[in-house]
Amino acid sequence: MPLISPVRRLLAAGLFALFATVAQAAGLAADAIAPAEPDAVLAAQLLGAEGPVTVIREEGAVPGWRAEAGGSVLGHLGSTWEIAGSVGYSGRPLDVIVALAPDGRIAGAQLMAHAEPVLTLGISDADIARYVDGFAGVDLTAPRESLADARADMPDIISRATVSTAAIRDGILRTARALAIGRGLISETGGIDRVGYTALDWQGLVATGALAHATMTLSEARAVLQGGKNPPPEGEAPFLDLWAGLIDPPTVGRNLLGQQNFTRAIGALGAKDVALILISSGLHSPRGTAWRQSGSFDRIAVVQGGVRLQPTKDDYIFVKKLHIEGAPAVKEIGIYRLAAEGFDPKEPFRVEITATRPAESGRDDVTTVIGADYALPDAFQLAPPPEPEPLWRSAWQNKRPAIVIVLAMLAVLTLILFLQESFVRRPMLWRRVRLGFLATTLVVLGWGLNGQLSVVQVVAFLHSLLTGFRWETFLVDPVIFILWSFTALGLLFWGRGVYCGWLCPFGALQELLNNAAARLGVKQVAVPQALHERLWVIKYTLFLAILALSFYSMHDALVLAEAEPFKTAISLRFLRAWPFLAFVALLLVAGLFVERFYCRYLCPLGAGIAIPAKLKIFDWLKRRPQCGRECRLCETKCTVGAIDPLGRINPNECVLCLRCQVIYHDATTCTILKRRSRAPGATGDSQ
């Protein structure tokens, strides 16, 4: 198995490096569009508002806009390009304005900018608008399943636009979640469970960690308050026995207070307030008496990092007794509202009770602090709002039958190519298997599974390498991803023919029609070699033109990519406007007289794959020294005219049909073998 010359590999690598340099020099920053800005009309439309709406820009970690009417907030808006940096399959910015209602639901969305191939041609604006509109009403706090499951008014994807619509979905959901967290509509780390309830007695509640405990005996207090007037007496009785905790979870508050008192206490809280209960016994009172005149509970402090809260009388609710079974005898019960910027009730904090005595000698007061460290138990916290499940995961799960079919086809093809030596020695088997495989490629892979690769995907891949590659973008369509992966691997072993000769549905359609035409006696046209080689220039020029134009205008590049008939003949199954149908018919008619006419001279995808095909490591197609000099049969029989008059196989053009290898081993067809068989002492050796 001779190795292909390293010079070819250097040429291919150099060509791609040249493209990368040209692209960067052309200024890919042109792709960085300015985020779309919603006006009052759009904001009112998305938020369902009537009357005048004011749109106010908001900067910060999550930039966006706030919509107001009559002094109240209607909702928030954000750009997917600005917040999530969303890009489409084309590698270009994809911008959707997302509107969020104050309750954390998506109020609406509108596509503002894109350069998606399947959206530009073949899919109507109404289809896209209907898909984007379908996100209205999505609840960002709902369990993950409700975000990933299909909705009656919104398809998971638009047929033939799998990757692009997945990119839109990803951008909308990521932007909406970031906007909701940034505006405080949902919590980034979850929230307090204010619904769940389990009946518990005192010991059971304490066992959950719902209450923090701190105690100081009289003797301990006397020691730390030494030097102050009226020190506590000696003894092991409590100076202060303190229990502290949040009562917002019903399992805590309802058990401690009873349903009626719990409802009264929690009902008085604001949207972001929490309620702290302090239960104490002992000589020292946490609330004291000075608060009645000062209005502030100077003995009580709640400390969390740099935040220090001190409740006021407006934050206080008196509780007469505990309703929980097994409660200890207590002296004082109070509920205190906690509400302040920077305080997070889900993070640990410390409750500090200060005890002070005037100094005997006129010095500063003698003070001590009894502290209870509290952390809200995990059992009383809600899980964080889920990240939207990547659509590619559900796509792979939903398309498991298609994946199995494609993998089975690739396994069969791999066996054919690895065992080609024995395969091509049986001309009838080769012919039947090849025609059967091509028919499967056309009907099952092409029309059934929409497994037609395109030059648009090559351009999108190159753009993604230069502007930010994301696996998720290409994993959304498993059939296309598997085909490209196999094609890329096959380029190293066999060259471009792995896909072009066996897995391309349109190529299969051409070859099957030509085979039928030949059987019906349609005379095949032999294109002169000089003209044949010069016509190759068309497809390479077309590929370079599409690629170069994409750096200037992706829209124009996609229009030029309509030189590919794949969308009309395979993806849309001939359900298209008559000019496209006429173009495909012209190509197929030409292919009746010149086998694989389109593949030979016009296919930009084939040209794009042929360039890296120069990196092919092995050459498993056999030739004899006499090929081209004493016999030119393979040249005339080649499916795409890839064999030159000297008998050399051009790897850029070969589609690996193996027809020349069948002739090579067929003693009844190969001129060299027939001559050897007639020679005196012939052994029948076919090598």
UniProtKB/TrEMBL annotation:
Keywords: Cell membrane, Membrane, Signal, Transmembrane, Transmembrane helix. It is found in: Cell membrane. Residues 88-179 form the FMN-binding domain. The keyword Transmembrane applies. SMART domains: FMN_bind (SM00900). The chain crosses the membrane at residues 402-423, 435-462, 474-494, 537-555, 575-594. It comes from the Bacteria. The keyword Transmembrane applies. Pfam families: Fer4_5. Residues 1-25 form the signal peptide. InterPro entries: 4Fe4S_Fe-S-bd, FMN-bd, NosR, NosR_regulator. This is NosR/NirI family protein.
